[in-house]
Structure prediction request, 685 residues.
Amino acid sequence: MHCLTVTYCRGMFLATFRGSLASLMRLKLEMQRLKHMTVVSWALRTQYGLQRMGPSFNNYLSRSYSSHSQQEKVDMSRFPVENIRNFSIIAHIDHGKSTLADRLLEMTGAIDKSHSNKQVLDKLQVERERGITVKAQTASLFYSHEGKTYLLNLIDTPGHVDFSYEVSRSLSACQGVVLVVDANEGIQAQTVANFFLAFEAQLTIIPVINKIDLKNADPDRVEKQIERIFDIPKEECIRVSAKLGTNVEQVLQTIVEKIPPPRADSADHLKALVFDSTFDHYRGVIAFVALFGGHVGKGDKIMSAHTLKTYEVNDVGILRPDELATDKLYAGQVGYLIAGMKAVKEAQIGDTLHLQEQPVKPLPGFKPAKPMVFAGMYPVDQSEYNNLRSAVEKLTLNDSSVTVHRDSSPALGAGWRLGFLGLLHMEVFNQRLEQEYNAAVILTVPTVPYKVILSSPKLIKEYGTEEITILNPTQFPDKFHVVEYLEPVVLGTVITPGDYIGRIMSLCQDRRAEQKSMVYIDDDRVMLKYLFPLNEIVVDFYDSLKSLSSGYASFDYEDAGYEPADLVKMDFLLNGCKVEELTTIVHKQKAHFIGKVICERLKDSIPRQLFEIAVQAAIGSKIIARENIKAYRKNVLAKCYGGDITRKMKLLKRQAEGKKKMRKIGNVEVPKDVFINVLKRQKDR
Prediction:
């Protein structure tokens, strides 16, 4: 049963429809035929809820009908293993990965061709705002080539060094990669890093030179770079313009011809690798899986090799790029699986899922991410602790590279010590907490993990080992309890035009870096390798490098272990009270300079009070720097029009006594943005 009621109001026809969605679609098509859809504004009341639409309702119905027609289940058994290709798109940041993914989706019919198709796979708000990819996204494409229909599983990956763990995880579900290089900028640091990730995984690499439509594009130069650095013949490079769609069809053909099918067999027992997951408030955990054997469908009883818990599969399907339900998923395919996992901890990245009565040997899984930066996270209001804990658990399910340890602070209460892969990773995680879970948090100053070799028998007995790792600067032991301090170091790669070599070398030396090599990759570009202390690059080295090189230099780093260093713990005091959240570890040579600079920044960042505030930097009991924040001061002499000087002195003395008393009992509030801002180096200091 359905009913359409039309009324006339304020020069416009208003229609109310009651009925099923299918009836609504038939009505829409009929009215389009009669050309009566031009001025109608609709209020739809269906079994799917009430939605109010304006003049753009025609477009809305077109999209709804298109998506509704796509909901017809696809028979995935039509795609045997030999007709499946799993591949990732990898590149340096802003080289056009997401734009190329948009064109591939359009050409295979996964999405309609439209000018609004920009970064379709970048679904997060933070990705749209920043214009970068921070989360790998999957899409299944159907492509016909030489009379056969192929299933292409595409994974679009991030390009920034802070999200390299997303790339390495994505490659585990692939047999090949499309390596995108900008025809204008050429090979950059993250291009090199991503190439070697794919090379070590023994994946087929298809080089693609993008942005050939740009005025300053030089694809010949880039082909020579690829041949020289990666030893890939320049004849294999495909020149494309992802923006205009030029030669993108050739990329699809090359993927089908060169990338091998996955090694999997539907006749084997079910082996499904969980390579990513997310949390839905209504359906629980949605696991993204790659099948290395067997098949799985709705109603199957599956078991987790990690938790040994049993689940019944509620739904399976593929992503196009939105969810499209299927009856089953077969070996070699990539898709999503919903099995009623309600607790966040039940879905572990790298877990193997198998049928309950057919246990299998677990797949190797993933090497755990190694955090490079640690920061304390606390709720602004302690009453929000449980809500924030739930938000952090759900977000770490979707971003498994974040490590979480419980922590507490005298000033900020209960919280966590979180480990991140870099400062951008930390900022994005914080932004996602605010946007997706409406959580307000305080982040403390970011630090790196140090190691300490102890000499004190008491401390060795307490920790149970001579060598300990320090994640929180407040736990840094004194020198007389220690044999040696060790700081983390990284092997950094800088690729820059030759004009900026002098400035960049000075910057690296200023950060205590040790040069390892310098290679010219072509007539103009140079690749520098330095051994950096991680503490020197983690906060703002990238910004300084971009500023010095007018944005042309790129930077990437990899872990290089630990080296001995002369380190000290620096405390900051406000009116003699230690602020543990500002405690930091610095190299002894730079202690005085850093202490003075941070005191000056604290002076600028902390609001003035009605009493004077002394800001001090201390190493042990020795004060090495100090700044004073002047008090707000009422002019108590304003009412004195002449008269004896003793009356003025009496008023000033009384005011000074009041300020002194206020200073003893007054609390200094530190704004939450101070904790990150104080360590950022500024050009004028």
Remarks:
- Confidence is low (pLDDT under 50) at residues 5-14, 32-70, 681-685.
- The longest helix spans residues 645-665.
- The radius of gyration is 30 Å.
- The chain is about 25% helix and 35% strand.
